[in-house]
Design brief:
680 residues, alpha+beta, BirA Bifunctional Protein, domain 2, 12% strand
Length: 680
């Protein structure tokens, strides 16, 4: 539109109309927009109301539950352990795994997470087709005993307390899903790698954090923390998580409440990524608490701009094929080693056979030579008559030697008896000449008693020797053919006109008699060791004291090991306490005699014998009377003990002990001068 300025200034109707039309159009546009916005707001409100209503309806549907209880007769009873056919592979047992060394990080400094997500249901065709009971087998595989870390601590479930109830739950879940859809999903499996840097307790804590999202959604899950496979990387601690998209709650043993709807948003790309992020957050939080500088990322290598690994993902089938080939190679190598060993064994057996053949030939030659020597010996063997004569001469020489020894013993004992008598007379004369006090008279009496005992002992010893010599048979012994006659229980034989009696050998002892004899010998040996220990203690002159129980004791540290052991076992017996009491009394009397002798010296010379006061007796140690000495410390028969010189000497010692005055010991008697070799 062309308008002149003058016309515009004067007022142009066309221009005014054009402006008015534009203004009206603008107002109409604004009104239309307001109306559309108002309509949109109304539609949004209606949409929101519809959405809220649908959410309430969905919530109502989700809140509806189906109560399922498995009766006693339908419960599984043979699932206390996982069947070995579900997991046993001989290849894994034959191969030995290694420890990897790779620890690669991405450009962002984080590690990739191994997160395998698998959904299985009636319509599953990927890998293998669905089979009835697959859910319970998957759960049992996850909680098998041989693979769990920490034993029974390595698995748990929020719908079962044991494996029987776990199998019952998945059977009920599979039966319920069969009523829903023909291609319904039954369970989901997540296999998640856990950090090897964590401890077993820390890995269990990380798994509990991973399961928190499932607990908030009310889903039923089963956890199994596995150790690394024997044939794989020994850092491969991993988690098997089996759960269902249908919410479920355990009410009682073998009773559950299932929801009528599912959480299908989990089995979507967004839901899987959400689960992957939740796993990474749980593991990173556990690593942070453990103070480990290692973090994971939920992104894949492609999203992070990293190149794909050269090897790539091999897959389960290829992995097991490679392991079978490696196992076959190891077995072939083992067979080669075994073949080499068998070859060496066969060579050794052949060599041994050759050596045995040569050794057999040598043995045969030696046996032949010995046979020849035996035949020569039989040819030169003397006659029986010569052997009898030779044995008769030998026995006669032995009897002659015994007679000479008897005569020599009697010839030596006669002057010994006279020497003892002379010595006794001389000592009595010396004591009578030097003693003037009552104490010397007491000593003379004790010495006389001791010498009388020695004389009695000597006489008895001589009589025993004479009896033993007289018991030796004086008749000659001949060797000849037995006539077979019996006289008074003995066998009679005659040779060349001579008749002699062969004493009948005593009967063989029984087992009980042999055991009793061994017991008596052991007791006699124990008594000998005890007497040696007591003699050592007397020579040591150790101090005797009373312990807290009122028993006598003595320091036995200087005794040898054997004597100390026997003394420790027998020191509480009546005989040992009696001997210790006598030794204690002798020590007390020795101290008193020492004091009396010193007083006598002081009175005779006028000079004090001690630089200080005399040593008083210990008031805490009572003066014990000589205890009654039992016949024997050990349970040895009296008849056995009375046979021989040892029993007679023991009786003489007992008589001397009873004849000794109270408070005196045989160690306190005056010292007897030793005789010379000629006098003995």
């Amino acid at each position: 539109m062309a308008i002149d300025y003058a016309e515009l200034k004067a007022g142009n109707r066309e221009a005014a109309q054009a402006l008015a039309d534009a203004r009206s159009a603008r107002h109409l546009t604004s009104r239309r927009k307001r109306e559309e916005a108002s309509a949109e707001r109304a539609d949004e409100g209606a949409r929101r109301r519809r959405k809220a209503m649908s959410d309430r309806e969905a919530e109502a549907f989700l809140s509806r539950r189906l109560h399922i209880k498995m009766p006693e007769g339908d419960r599984p009873r043979t699932r206390s352990r996982t069947p070995r056919k579900l997991f046993t592979r001989m290849v894994a047992q034959m191969l030995k795994g290694t420890v990897g060394v790779t620890n690669a990080r991405g450009p962002d400094g984080r590690h990739s997470i191994h997160f395998a997500f698998t959904a299985r249901g009636f319509g599953s065709k990927n890998g293998r087709r669905w089979r009835a009971g697959e859910a319970e087998r998957a759960a049992l595989y996850s909680v098998r005993e041989e693979a769990l870390e920490g034993g029974e601590l390595g698995w748990w479930s929020n719908v079962a307390d044991d494996r029987n109830e776990l199998v019952a739950h998945y059977r009920a879940s599979e039966a319920l899903e069969a009523k829903d859809r023909a291609n319904a999903n039954i369970y989901l499996v997540e296999v998640i790698a856990l950090p090897a840097e964590l401890t077993a307790e820390q890995r269990r804590q990380a798994v509990k954090r991973i399961c928190r999202q499932l607990e908030r959604l009310g889903l039923a899950y089963t956890v199994g923390i596995h150790l690394p496979d024997a044939a794989g990387d020994q850092r491969n601690f991993h988690l098997h998580l089996v759960y269902s998209m249908r919410p479920c709650q355990r009410v009682a043993p073998y009773e559950w409440q299932f929801a009528v709807t599912k959480r299908t948003e989990i089995n979507t790309p967004a839901g899987i990524m959400q689960r992957r992020c939740a796993v990474v957050v749980a593991i990173n939080e556990t690593l942070r608490e453990a103070g480990i500088d290692k973090r994971y990322t939920p992104l894949s290598n492609r999203d992070r701009g990293m190149a794909q690994p050269i090897r790539g993902k091999v897959g389960q089938q290829a992995t097991w094929a490679a392991r079978r080939l490696a196992a076959a190679d190891d077995r072939h190598a083992s067979l080669l080693i075994l073949q080499d060993q068998l070859r060496q064994v066969s060579t050794g057996l052949v060599d041994a056979a050759k050596w045995l053949g040569s050794a057999g030939a040598i043995v045969r030659r030696r046996c032949l030579g010995m046979a020849i020597k035996l035949s020569d010996a039989e040819a030169i063997m003397p006659s029986p008559a010569a052997l009898k004569a030779k044995m008769r001469d030998h026995l006669e020489r032995q009897m002659s030697v015994a007679d000479q020894a008897t005569r020599a013993a009697r010839a030596k004992l006669t002057p010994a008896r006279s020497a003892v008598s002379q010595r006794l007379t001389s000592m009595r004369h010396d004591l009578g000449a030097t003693a003037g006090a009552s104490e010397l008279a007491n000593r003379r009496e004790v010495l006389g008693t001791h010498l009388a005992g020695m004389r009695s002992h000597t006489v008895q010893t001589v009589a025993d020797i004479a009896t033993w010599v007289a018991a030796i048979p004086q008749h000659p012994i001949a060797i000849g053919h037995d006539t077979g006659r019996t006289v008074g229980g003995d066998r009679t034989s005659s040779t060349d006109g001579e008749t002699f009696v062969t004493p009948t050998p005593p009967p063989s002892p029984t087992v009980g008699e042999m055991q009793a004899a061994r017991h008596q010998a052991a007791l006699r040996r124990q008594r000998e060791i005890y007497d040696e220990a007591l003699a050592m203690l007397r020579r040591k002159r150790g101090r005797v004291w009373l312990d807290a129980d009122g028993r006598y004791d003595i320091d036995d540290a200087d005794l040898p090991t054997r004597e100390r052991g026997v003394w420790q076992r027998l020191k509480s017996t009546v005989k040992a306490q009696s001997d210790l009491a006598d030794l204690h009394t002798a020590q007390q009397q020795s101290v008193r005699m020492r004091v009396v002798d010193m007083d006598a010296v002081e009175q005779a010379t006028g000079v004090s014998a001690l630089p200080s006061a005399t040593v008083p007796l210990d008031p805490t140690i009572p003066e014990a009377e000589p205890a009654s000495r039992p016949d024997d410390l050990f349970p040895v028969a009296t008849a056995t003990k009375q046979r021989g010189v040892f029993a007679q000497a023991e009786s003489v010692d007992s008589e001397q002990a009873r004849a000794r005055p109270k408070g005196r010991d045989k160690d306190q008697t005056p010292a007897i001068p030793q005789k010379s070799e000629h006098e003995r």
